[in-house]
Amino acid sequence: MDMGTTPRARTRPPLELAEKQLPSKRQLEIKLSKLKILETPTLRLEQYPVSPEAAAELLYMAGFEHDDLEGRIIDLGTGTGRLAIGAALMSPAHVVGVDVDARALELARENAKTAGVKVKWVQSTIDELDGTYDTVIMNPPYGTRTAHADTRFLDKAFQLASITYSIHKTSTRTFIGRYINKSRRRIAETRSISMKIPHLFSFHARKWKSIEVDLCRIVT
Length: 220
Prior knowledge:
Elements: H1 14-20, H2 25-33, H3 52-65, E1 72-76, H4 82-90, E2 94-99, H5 102-115, E3 120-123, E4 135-138, H6 149-160, E5 163-169, H7 173-182, E6 186-198, E7 208-219
Parallel strand pairs: 1-2, 1-4, 2-3, 4-5
Antiparallel strand pairs: 5-7, 6-7
């Protein structure tokens, strides 16, 4: 399946933004950049935070271009809540953020207060989740430390909702595309972006590292 990068989204008039009461993409980036991240993340869990720029791009694709941030939204592997909080800033939907790490969720709760939004935070593994949602949003583990972690998150997302927005390393594009096709889903849109990751682990040689990622809209 060809998962080539799609053109960047059209720009809507300021009046239309005001009518929907949405922050601009830049305003969303700024708000998300003020949220705290884990200073000592767990490598095994691949706790790489989604950048404010990538989060804003994915959330604008979901909430502004496709109206997919309505109803019940769940963020799998929410970490400190950047995607879940951004979704709540974009929409009055019922947003749930799930993570296995209590430390991350403690910061997520603090971040939600900072942003002035309500999110339901749940400490759980993804295997224990059930229910029905309208949309899944997630920055899952990329499977570099735990084999198949990325596909486990995709499998759970497909069980929970008919629409999934997920972030994956561009280097895994072919594999992810084939896996999604085998799961009887299709990638309706892909947008590539360079995501900056701060120095978090001892093996990081630079203050910041950029990785190429694909923001994928996956549908039935």
